[in-house]
Amino acid sequence: MGYWFCANLDQGEILCAKVWDVLIGLQVAWNNEIKKIMVESDSAIGEQLILMIVKNVEWPEQFPFKPQDFQRFDESSDSVFYEAPRFVTHIDDPAIAALTKYYSKVFPPSNTAGVSHFPPGYKQERIIGMGMNEEELKHNPVLTKYAVQDLNVSPKLPFEDNSFHIITNVVSVDYVTKPLDVFKEMCRILKSFRSPLNEFNLAKISANSFSNRCSWTKPISIWTSTSDADHALLAGAYFHYAGGFEPPQGARLLFCSSNINQLK
Q1: Where are the domains of the chain?
Q2: Where does the RNase H type-1 domain start and stop, copy by copy (predicted)?
Q3: 34 partner at 20 to 30 Å CA-CA among 100, 130, 241, 248?
């Protein structure tokens, strides 16, 4: 017995069509309660795309992006936009599970219990969250402190130099309008430590994750007009041009039917 399907994907990249081919096929199998599946594809590059996209990049001498690349469809105040708390997760449960599993491999050792996207049982003496809505931050039980700040207005981070082991940024890098300022500040407050992310050599570590979901009126224009592969390259460029970081690495995190991309 065989199943055939077709879909109109409009215009796009060949790689995108191949990935949709696999996704639709898996959905057909799942809907027909077929649980043992072998996936074959002639596009091995799709599996390695995010891993390789920022490897051995010949970066231009100067930051190649223009101010208009960081404009948004909605340029109204972010403070107003985020005024009402949104007690939701912005990626689905399988993607959260993939990200949590990834964190468990790269975080400094834990010393007590905690929750959030961080690994179960993980907490440190100091875990500080930063966001736009105080009520949301208050309801995050893993945090020991929090700071309400609009980085698009004031990218200066209110922390001392070399005071954090790791910075995580979950599905927010696409909303940052002053990325070089923010990433330079991230570098300033990070201390080097030995992480498996850098083969246990001393390095400053920041894990920035992103997916294909967003609130379309608030991300920067270059994000909403480019592909997932371009997003990986863009985030990698932030690390490179901010200075002070090791060459960026990419990882594609998979869990069941969901995926999430990671730049560090």
Answers
A1: 1-42, 46-263
A2: 13-49
A3: 100
